[in-house]
């Protein structure tokens, strides 16, 4: 009888415990994301009003590199540090990770680097969450769940996609395995963090996929083909970013000089091309990809600018640039596959991310949240095919590989 009573009370204790902890995590992460997004909007507006500021990007890169060299060595790994701590807990993530990555990302955007925002929100969410480890005297197992919830809260609040955020925290840790013991904390953290950011007045960009044709054999075959292209793009992005980062570290010993050089390359490229459409978040171009035909090389331009920025050491994230790459690549493929621009842009938006991050489930759910349920079958097919064709190297090198993607054992 005692066993039955324990089995009945245990879920209530679990719910009470993680409702409290996850809600605190969500409040911290959602508020931090709101502050970050407001600062990012201000930085983007300032850069747009003064285009010549791009020539200060090398100096901004040097400052960011210098600050991380002297004050942020222990947290420089960013997202990978959080994933490593979840797999092998060692010590609480230093709180200084949050203000460092926030300031560095805002500076990167202000002066014209091509970086994203998800990495910053995830790192802030994880770092702030981990400060509760000592407050609640959490054991290593519970600390893992706490960090996963922080990742979910950061992702959900920066994009306004709570369901995708909850699943992203569970899915991103390892290929072939999800942490089901963290489902409830991640769900609470993601939902409440999104509500917290919204309460602060955050407004997320809305996109419309437009008309979604009925799922027929030809349309599904075309989407599967597009999924392959999205997967190859995601794989190429991850590999090129890692390769450039390794190259500059090998040949440039003094860390601040790496983003200085990268900033000079980006600034010179903006001047040579006579356009700033490939720097910053690129949200206006993403929006255009849903409605009208763009230059076929726009995705490649964003690809190159982002690899140069992140690979040389600027701080931010990969996901929004991947949205840009995917949406514009989908836009380029739409006439070839005889499908609407909006549909292919929406599928590329989520599927390139699915391949690069190895998160097909979170990406599919994101498509449902952003574009509505009608796109579900197409999004699932595009994201899964992209995942299958993107290899085992993703944007997060700390991501573990539990199983091969096609069922074959890893060697």
What can you see in these coordinates?
The chain is mostly helical and 411 residues long. The protein has 2 domains: 185 residues, Clc chloride channel; 185 residues, Clc chloride channel, CATH 1.10.3080. Helix content is 69%, strand content 1%. It is built from 17 helices and 2 strands. The chain has a two-stranded parallel sheet. The model has no long low-confidence stretch (mean pLDDT 95).
Give the arrangement of secondary structure elements.
Blueprint: H1 2-49, H2 57-71, H3 79-87, H4 97-111, H5 118-130, H6 132-135, H7 140-159, H8 162-171, E1 174-175, H9 183-199, H10 217-251, H11 257-273, H12 283-289, H13 298-311, H14 319-337, H15 341-357, H16 360-371, H17 376-388, E2 400-401
Parallel strand pairs: 1-2
Write down the Rg: 21 Å
Task: Give the ordered list of helices and strands.
Answer: HHHHHHHHEHHHHHHHHHE
CATH topology of the largest domain: Clc chloride channel
Average of the residue pLDDT scores: 95
Number of helices: 17
Largest sheet: 2 strands, parallel
Shape: globular
Q: List how many beta strands DSSP finds.
A: 2
**CATH superfamily annotation of the largest domain:** Clc chloride channel
Give the uncertain stretches in residue-range form: none
**Relative strand content:** under 5%
Helix/strand-derived category reads mainly alpha
Tell me the CATH architecture of the largest domain. Orthogonal Bundle
Indicate the percent of residues in helices. Answer: 55-70%
Count of the separate structural domains: 2
Class of the largest domain, according to the CATH hierarchy? Mainly Alpha
Amino-to-carboxy terminus distance = 49 Å
Main-sheet strand order equals: 1-2
Transmembrane segments: 20-40, 52-71, 145-170, 182-203, 215-240, 252-274, 339-358, 370-389
GO molecular function: chloride transmembrane transporter activity
Membrane topology: Multi-pass membrane protein
Protein name: Voltage-gated chloride channel protein
């Amino acid at each position: 009888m005692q066993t039955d009573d324990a089995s009945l009370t245990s879920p209530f204790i679990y719910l009470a415990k993680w409702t409290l902890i996850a809600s605190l995590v969500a409040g911290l992460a959602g508020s931090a994301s709101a502050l970050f997004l407001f600062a990012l909007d201000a930085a983007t507006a300032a850069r747009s009003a003064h285009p010549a500021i791009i020539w200060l990007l090398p100096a901004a890169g040097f400052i960011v590199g210098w600050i991380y060299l002297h004050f942020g060595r222990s947290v420089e790994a960013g997202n990978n540090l959080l994933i490593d701590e979840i797999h092998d807990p060692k010590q609480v993530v230093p709180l200084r990770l949050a203000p460092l990555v926030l300031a560095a990302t805002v500076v990167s955007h202000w002066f014209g680097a091509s970086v994203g925002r998800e990495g910053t929100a995830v790192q802030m969410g994880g770092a702030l969450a981990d400060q509760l480890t000592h407050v609640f005297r959490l054991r290593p197992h519970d600390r893992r769940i706490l960090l996963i919830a922080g990742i979910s809260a950061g992702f959900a609040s920066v994009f306004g996609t709570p369901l995708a955020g909850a699943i992203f925290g569970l899915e991103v840790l390892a290929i072939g395995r999800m942490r089901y013991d963290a489902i409830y904390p991640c769900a609470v953290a993601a939902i409440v963090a999104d509500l917290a950011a919204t309460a602060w007045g955050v407004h997320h960009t809305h996109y419309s996929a437009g008309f979604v044709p009925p799922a027929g054999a030809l349309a599904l075959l075309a989407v599967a083909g597009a999924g392959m292209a999205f997967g190859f793009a995601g794989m190429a992005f991850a590999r090129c970013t890692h390769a450039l980062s390794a190259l500059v570290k090998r040949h440039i010993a003094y860390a601040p000089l790496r983003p200085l050089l990268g900033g000079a390359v980006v600034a010179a490229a903006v001047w040579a091309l006579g356009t700033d459409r490939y720097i910053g978040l690129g949200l206006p171009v993403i929006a255009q990809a849903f409605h009208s035909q763009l230059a076929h090389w726009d995705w490649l331009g964003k690809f190159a600018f982002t690899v140069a920025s992140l690979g040389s050491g600027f701080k931010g994230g990969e996901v929004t640039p991947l949205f840009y790459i995917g949406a514009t690549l989908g836009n380029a493929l739409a006439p070839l596959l005889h499908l609407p621009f909006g549909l292919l842009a929406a599928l590329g938006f989520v599927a390139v991310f699915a391949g690069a991050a190895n998160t097909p489930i979170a990406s599919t759910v994101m498509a449902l949240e952003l574009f509505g349920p009608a796109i579900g079958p197409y999004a699932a097919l595009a994201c899964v095919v992209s995942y299958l064709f993107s290899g085992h190297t993703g944007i997060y090198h700390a991501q573990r590989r539990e199983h091969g993607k096609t069922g074959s054992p890893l060697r």
